[in-house]
């Protein structure tokens, strides 16, 4: 991991515009950029819809083919999927 590069990118990220601001201009992450980084396909139907916190794991399993593990004992269920987990299972 190049910590200097990561720090530079974090310093240049503007959440209000969802883009990086550099001295030479602006760069925005596209869907294709995320597909390349994550390895997830972007063809076909979108993974969207209403999912209650009660059954979100089951819906994730139906939509992406892998159901996230239950939280560890004593941990809060955050109802989210980490990018590192997606990379691991895809």
TrEMBL record:
InterPro entries: AminoTfrase-like_pln_mobile, MAIN-like. One of its GO terms (biological process) is meristem maintenance. It comes from the Eukaryota. Residues 2-88 form the Aminotransferase-like plant mobile domain. This is Aminotransferase-like plant mobile domain-containing protein. Transmembrane segments: none annotated. It holds the Pfam family PMD.
């Amino acid at each position: 991991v190049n910590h200097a590069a990561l720090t530079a990118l974090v310093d240049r990220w503007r959440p209000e515009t969802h883009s990086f601001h550099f001295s030479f201009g602006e760069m925005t992450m596209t869907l294709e950029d995320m597909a390349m980084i994550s390895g997830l396909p972007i063809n076909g139907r979108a993974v969207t819809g209403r999912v209650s916190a009660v059954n979100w794991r089951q819906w994730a399993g139906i939509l992406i083919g892998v159901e996230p593990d239950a939280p560890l004992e004593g941990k809060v269920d955050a109802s989210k999927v980490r990018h590192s987990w997606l990379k691991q299972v895809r």
